[in-house]
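Moderator note: this is an archived Q&A kept for reference. The question asked for a predicted structure of one protein chain; the sequence and the answer are reproduced below.
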Amino acid sequence: MSFGIGDLFWIFLLFSSFQPIWQKRQIEYRRFRALQEFERQRKSRVIFLIHRQESISLLGIPISRYITIEDSEQILRAIRLTPPDVPIDLILHTPGGLVLATEQIARALIRHPSKVTVFVPHYAMSGGTMLALAADEIIMDANAVLGPVDPQLGNFPAASILKILEDKPISEIDDQTLIMADLSRKAMQQVQNFVRTLLKDNIPRQKVKPENIENIVQALTSGRVTHDYPITVEEATEMGLPITVGLPRIVYDLMELYPQPQGGRPTVQYIPMPYDDRRPILPVPKGRPLEEPTQMR
């Protein structure tokens, strides 16, 4: 049987159309195996929350990714599937997101009976920092950063809106600004109370000293710095947060499997099954070729 140029063209076109699908399945499988290996090493439930947004755009317009209600639904399900005696490891790479979604995740983390560890390879800003505060231990790369959690009303920091009341007589302030200032005061109180709750919850299990709590609350929520201010490992440690420097190599390897996306993909990933002591996670043999995973019940 002989093939003409036209036949070869159609074969090439067919192969090209299936190649992206095959590559996607391969990287998804590599992520699955890497997550499984990390869980085997740590004997924990590992959850990834990654929002790559550094260069995402549509028709030249930047698109931001952040913590959403969909993320909170997925993470809450992962936590529910985790037995009380299994620790949770949360790997964070996010600029923050919705307060509602962030608080839901944070409350679920502090209610988990076993140890909760947050890993920050690069940055966990705003809502990401709030999730880190819900952990018993925060493990960071030496160059990774956290960020303030002061509330924002639209495009304006709540602290800056309140400062208008200090700098101008009340008679010179319009009604809309006064309403915004009232909302800002409430938002500040709500965030401060919630951060205080997270830190107080950690006292029986971790290293946050009671005398450091108010300093941490003020440093993170009062708007002393801009909302995108990077809080370094040294500064976070000086505040009194339970910081450990030095990530396992496998965390960096996992990050390599989540490159800047060319299209849509889930931002939360975990092995979707409840844990069972009768079904241990087996070690991945070294030097073995990748195989298609068997379906799990």
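Archived answer notes: The mean pLDDT is 82.
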